Amino acid sequence: MAFSFSSLFSKEVKSVLGVDIGTSSIKIVQLRREKGRVVLETYGAIALGPYADIEVGRATALPAEKIAEALKDVIREANVTTADAAISIPYSSSLVSIVTLPASVEKQLATVMPLEARKYIPVPINEVLLDWFVISGGEGEKNASPTGKIEVLLVAIHNDTITKFRSIASTANLELGFFEIEVFSAARAALDHGIAPVAVVDMGAATTKFYVVERGVIHESHIISHGSQDLTLAAGRALGITVAEAEQRKRKFGLTGDIATAGIANLKQSLELSLGIVLSELSRTIAAYEAAKNQSLGALVLTGGGATLKGMKEFAQKSIQTEIRLADPFSKTQAPAFLEEILREAGPEFSVAVGLALRRLQEIG
Ligand SMILES: Nc1ncnc2c1ncn2[C@@H]1O[C@H](COP(=O)(O)OP(=O)(O)OP(=O)(O)O)[C@@H](O)[C@H]1O
Ligand SMILES: [Mg+2]
Question: How many CB atoms lie within 10 A of CB 122?
């Protein structure tokens, strides 16, 4: 899928590209700033399945060259006009932990964190890139650290991952502004500035990622080992159709099943059954979080391609108490009015790519 309307806008240089390399597809979004507004110039997605000789919608594990080939293809199809890019790093290639330390070491984190990280990171420290932010109790806060403790978010990414993503970027002729772990990009694009803790639920192909965000900081994360491809595989088996056919029907009908075509009732039943497994694990995750923190979540924001399943929100709301919203990242951008509905529907799939491009725009000011 690709759509371009950059020709509608006058040519100007400051365009940026957000690149989200997922396990099942690559998503890209090109934005630029114009008179203080963020303008959507083009966007596109390309399935990686065909580059791995498997079906569209399934998770892949491709070498850098194949990913770069797909990235070049989608850049061409979407008529991207900038090389200034930011790329997300998969959450699974990173290690994110919250480290509690005495407030007295806040000024020495540069020396303390690499030592501290050894306790949390299962590989030698010189094999990872480390980053950290103080998330609570720091000096910037009022009543800094009544407990004498600070909480520091520690992020580690393996050097091999960095090398792989750098090589993908350079093969695709992109100039890399930064890498960011997808969690942070998705949160930026999918959330408004609320106070209450909100969970972002990113339903990808093989997994569903859950993270709690409070005052802009990620506080908790959890991976559910079921994703949207499980719905397709189960529907294929239940209906006795190929995976490719099941994927097409899943995308076309979703949970609506409102068309009296043979087999549609079964499709709905099968999808609801598989989705039920993801939702009950999600409920358990929410309950565990709320019990541990003794605090309710304000809302769940659904994102990722799996969240675009027709009827998803209504169905999920039946079994989950917390208010459910669908991510609408394109609402943070300006686009022609006739695209509004398409962008709202496709939005969840593009949260990470939009979040990356938004940060890059801010950086180049
Ligand atoms: N219209 C749709 N209806 C239902 N499911 C859809 C639709 N479009 C895409 N999907 C599903 O969304 C999944 C892919 O979502 P997404 O692109 O967010 O995953 P990813 O980023 O590649 O995966 P991950 O984040 O886990 O690496 C696929 O399994 C696909 O079948
Ligand atoms: Mg993804």
Answer: 8
Residue with tokens 């943070």: 332
- Taking each helix axis from N to C terminus, what angle separates 264-293 and 228-239, rounded to the nearest 10 degrees? 150
Q: Residue 140 C-alpha to ligand 1 middle, in angstroms?
A: 39
The domain defined by 2-91+163-191+328-364 carries CATH number 3.30.420.40: yes
Tell me the pTM.
0.91
CATH number listed for the domain at residues 93-160: 3.30.1490.300
Ligand 1 pocket, Cβ-based, cut-off 6 angstroms: 22-25, 57, 90, 204-207, 227-229, 232, 247, 250-251, 254, 304-306, 308-309, 349
Outline which parts of the chain fall under CATH 3.30.420.40. 2-91+163-191+328-364
- How many Cα atoms within 13 Å fall on the side-chain side of residue 149? 7
Which residues, 6 or more positions from 26, have their beta carbon under 8 angstroms from its beta carbon? 19, 20, 45, 46, 48, 67, 70, 71, 74
CA of 205 to the centre of ligand 1 (A): 5
Q: Measure 203 CA to ligand 1 centroid, in angstroms.
A: 7
| Residues with Cβ within 8 Å of residue 259, at least 6 apart in sequence | 253
| Tens-digit pLDDT string for the chain (365 aa) | 555 555 455 445 589 999 999 999 999 999 999 988 999 999 999 999 999 999 999 999 999 999 999 999 999 999 999 999 999 999 988 888 889 999 999 999 999 999 999 888 888 888 998 988 888 887 766 555 667 899 898 989 999 999 999 999 999 999 999 999 999 899 999 988 667 889 999 999 999 999 998 877 788 888 999 999 999 999 999 999 999 999 999 999 999 876 666 666 789 999 999 999 999 999 999 999 999 989 999 999 999 999 999 999 999 999 999 999 999 999 999 999 999 999 999 999 999 999 999 999 999 98
Ligand 1 mutation target, pool 23, 202, 249, 349, most atoms within 8 A of CB? 349
Ranges of CATH 3.30.1490.300 domains, the chain: 93-160
Residue 283 CA to residue 319 CA, distance in Å, equals 8
Distance 203 CA to ligand 2 centre (A): 7
